[in-house]
Write a structure and sequence with these properties.
The protein is of the alpha/beta class. The protein is built from 16 helices and 14 strands. Strands 7-6-8-1-9-10-4-11 form an eight-stranded mixed β-sheet. It has a two-stranded antiparallel ribbon with strand order 2-3. Belongs to the bacterial phospholipase C family.
Length: 513
Amino acid sequence: MASNANTTYPIKTVVVLVQENRSFDHMLGWMKSLNPEINGVTGTESNPISTSSPSTNLIHFGDRSAYVAADPGHSIQAIYEQVFGVPWSQDVSSKQLEPTMQGFAQNAEGIEKGMSEVVMNGFKPDAVPIYKELVSEFAVCDRWFAAIPASTQPNRLYVHSATSHGATSNNTKQLIEGYPQKTIFESLDEAGYTFGIYYEYPPATLYYRNLRKLKYIKNFHQFELHFKRHCKEGKLPNYVVVEQRYFDLEVLPANDDHPSHDVFEGQKFVKEVYEALRSSPQWNEMLFIIIYDEHGGFYDHVPTPVTGVPSPDGITGPEPYNFQFDRLGVRVPVIMISPWIERGTVLHGPSGPHPTSEFEHSSIAATVKMIFSLKEFLTKRDAWAGTFEGVVSRKSPRTDCLETLPEPVKLREAKAKDNEKLSEFQEELVQMAATLCGDHRKDTYPDKLVEDMTISDGVDYVKKAFKIFSDECERARQSGADESSICVPEDTPMAAKFKSFASKFFSCLVCDH
């Protein structure tokens, strides 16, 4: 443990799990029936099918969510319509509109007839029993927003770096190079603290270029092999990131909650992680945070903050949107777990550090900086974001925390289909894996590589690609390569026979970031 720790603060290990594509009202809105203090739903909330006729064809928010097969719109363009109630155009986007949150049903119907019923429903508490228990036993934050009104990858980048480096969607070139910004991982490492990433499939955190450095490869651990053992032995690092299964197979279903994946599997995964943490000798020094990267197109009634939000680094997003990173995304679920948290805590908006500060994904980096007394903020965004260290409010840890959680409820009757085509996020993971093993030099990269891939093909590919990358990184380290280098295979090892290290199977490129 580094000597500059905040010795009066009881938390020594922060654990972060980022689930996929669900809004607060969709997942936790009906928890208000259990605790009226939660800013959830009552059933009076509604959206019109057409915002041009707002008084007709209203759809009220219901509690009938179960298995969701549809994948609602969650691009920057779709979110604009959901938040402001009008389709995006360059003329309209130049105006200062108020966020009405009235465009979810209209946007959904524009994608597929009947989808409005999907986005205008949430889960009954008994349908998500793991969250029902955790919300009752620990803390829920009912005013936490996605960092930007955009899709998965940009928001995930904010979680650990407080910026997306200008990304508002997938950027193929940047995926090849990796995103160059500094992350909270490096800040912790520089201060003498430890971090670890426990993954089930090749980790999405490798979108950060700097985490591909040889010196950080040892921080990546296979979840199945190491997580429970490290919990049991009290060997979890100071900052823990748990990554889930993003691919949906019959034998190993996805557990990231991304539609069309079964929330039942996500509930099982949260239960597994919680129970491993609860049994650890480190439990009394732990804070476990469950968040969702973005709302996935599902309705939420709380207006999105559109003023007073600073750009993290002054970068403007790509055309045609030219986004200035000056407003937040839709509200998402956040649950905080620690024996230092009082039962039934509801965390509302922050009290600072600025008058317009909000809880959003950069709040994680900002709070970690405070907990571990790190030297500096990453960007202007985490310097602005609210911090949540105050949720740890007890003078001593509780001794009544549940050791086990209830069994979740299965929601999907059919089995996963291994031969389905890849989703956009899964394609991005395959393309990222290709950069790690050298296949990005192929003529098939990026689009043809994934064009005919099934989910089963994608799983096989990313596993093999990451193994090639990690094995060669280890060889490079043992051969005395610069620890600040990134291992890049010279050939395309997925198609070519391996060469020896002596014949330059790989080259190590020293990072200039």
